[in-house]
Structure formats: C-alpha cells, structure tokens
Amino acid sequence: METHIGAARHGSRRMGGRDPRETHRVATPLELLFDLTFATSFSLAASEAALVLAEGHVGAALVGFGFASFAICWAWINFSWFSSAYDTDDWIFRLVTMVQMIGVLVLGAGVPRVFVSMQRSGHLDNSIMVLGYVIMRVALVFQWLRAAKGDPARRSVCLTYAATISIAQVGWVAQVVLPLATSSALLLGAILVLVEMTGPVLAERKAGGTPWHAHHIAERHGLFAIIALGEGVVGTVAALSAVVDRQGSTLDAVLVGIAGMGLTFGMWWVYYLVPSAEILQRHRERAAVWGYVHMLIVTCIVATGAGLHVAAYFIEGNARIPAVAAVLAVAVPVAVFLALMQAQSYYLLRRFYSFQTWSLIATAGVLAATVIAAVSDANIAGCLLALVLAPTVMVVASEVRVADIPRKS
Description:
Elements: H1 29-54, H2 58-86, H3 91-120, H4 127-150, H5 155-177, H6 182-203, H7 214-247, H8 251-271, H9 276-282, H10 287-316, H11 323-349, H12 354-375, H13 380-387, H14 389-401
Helix pairs in contact: 1-2, 1-3, 1-7, 1-10, 2-3, 2-4, 2-7, 2-10, 3-4, 4-5, 5-6, 7-8, 7-9, 7-10, 8-11, 8-13, 8-14, 10-11, 11-12, 11-13, 12-13, 12-14
C-alpha cells in the first residue's frame, strides 16, 4: 500500500501554549531564517562602531553601539522566548514573523545614522532605528494578544507582556518626535529600557509564567551567540587583509590570522562550558537573570569582532588612535565576556570551584601583560596573539580540573 505524502498545510491554530517538556524540541527553519536578519544588523553595528572608534570618537562609538546592541538583542530575545512558548507555525504566525523581520531590516538600516549623528553633532538621531524597532514590537504585541485569547489559563501573563511592550513603544515614539536634548533623550531611553526589561519579570510571576522550553531556549541563545561570533570571523578577515595589503604574506599576517580565529574559537569554547539547558530545566526561576546576562555576553562577543576591525584600521594606518587603544578595543570586551561567563556559571550552578579562581587570576594576568606590552610599543600582531591566552586559560582549567556537575544545584 502506497503512502501519499502531500504538501504541509499551515492552517490557523489556537495558541494554547506548547509543552515545556516536549522531547526533541529544536530550532525551527523559520527561527533560523529570522536569525539571518539579526546577523546583518550586528554586522552593521560592529563595522560602524569600529570606524567611529578608530577615528578617536570613543563616546560616540560607545553610545551608538550600546543603543544598537540593546535594540538588536532585546528584539531577538523577546521573539525567541515567545516562540519557545507559543510557536504554532501556522500561516498567521509565519506572516507576523515576516513583519518582524522587516522591522529588523529597517532597524539595521538606521544603525549608520545613529553613529553618524553622534559623531558629527553629538545629537542622537535614532528615528529610523526606532521605526524598525516599533514595527517589530507592535507585531509581537499582536502575537501576545493572540496568545491571551488562545490560552485563557495564562491570559494575565500574555496581557502583561502586551501592556508593557505597548507602553514602552509609546515612549520610544515620543523620544523621536519630541525635541529633546541628547542628555534628555538618553535619560528617557534608559527609563524605557527599564520598562522593557521589567515587563517579562512581572509577567512570568503570574499564573506560573509562559510554557517556554528549557533546552529549546538554551539552543536558541547558543545560536544567537554563534551569530555574534561571526563578527569575530569578519573582524579576523579584515585584520588579516590589512596586514597582507600593507606588508604582504609575512609572519605578522600569520599571527593576526591565528589570533583572530583563536580568540573566536576560544570564546566559543568558553561559552559552551556552561550547562545552561540542564540547569534551566531544573531551575526555571533562574531564567530571567540568565537571559539578561546573555544580552551582555552577546554584546561583548560582537564588540570583540568590532575591536578586531579597529585593529585592522590601525594596521592599515587609517586609525587616529594609538596602538594601546587598538589593543584595548579587543582586550576589554574579551575581559568582560570572560568575567560574565564565570558569573553566569556561578549563578546557575551556585558553586565556584577553586580552579576557577586561579584561572581568573591567570586570565587577568594575561590581559594586563598584553596591555603593558602594547603601551611598550610591542608589535600589535603579537599583542593580539597574546590575547588568545585569555580564553585558553579558562578552557584548559575547565577541561582538566572541572568536577562533575552535581545532580542537585
């Protein structure tokens, strides 16, 4: 008897919430397609930050990169947590996701304007970014209202999400429309960020929260980190090309190539040392802090790629900053990333092993020695290579000395 396989149908389905213990739950093709738009936005933010920083405008680079990173990370995280709980994969969900993707592209198109405005006039012009952000968030409000209708048991949870998101969007529009000074705009932005981040905390305390899937959400965040690590690869290619164009195929070219990929690979290895999925499965109450810290972790990964871009500008002779500043552009985000990973590990496991203390001390020593070498006019390629030892120390310490994770933490 023949089995007929027809085209899959995606008729409208009720959003009743998915099973948080569903077996074999993995990222969907739609989620992976959605991620591609964020890869583009990260690339724009990293390249613009590197260009502005290489010209010596540190304040403009930090404000622009911070603003862009929050918008990118927060929009991605909200979509991913919603999808983990309520992805019906029907035609409505798919089309609304496409609208959110359009919003991401508009947001990305507005990234250069933020940096240019801060660099030239010191006035934050984030109008295009806010437009894209609001498009994404309004689409997500529609999804939360749909979930509130389809999941009566968690209606209060879904409506809390919809309400806080809506309030924040009114504020973002006001920030653009009202003639505010830069300081006032940044202050209002900080308040709105607080509103945005308070929403999930309030919502998840009601009716047991949303039925997100621990292993699925950990996988999704891991994929997001890999997208960010792609900027390390791009930054490595930029630095390597700069050396080859200026000096040809020399030892420095080899050192820069090894340094860039070594840093990227080392950060990837350190990231996956933390058993997030297993711990979140047992302790769902730790998810909020874990998710918020993850935003900073991803931002540091992208910033490392931007730092490698800065190093490339310095090697090409197109930077207005000293060698030590170019090295710090890489060393600082790497240092913060490693510190955050250790903090996240402690928060999840509630245990700090002695070998971790020694690895932190050794890592700090590597970072300090690298900066001192840069101050002493050491070869920048050699300094970048030395930075590879920072994540390497943590990896070796964990692989050699790590104890088995206790069954109860």
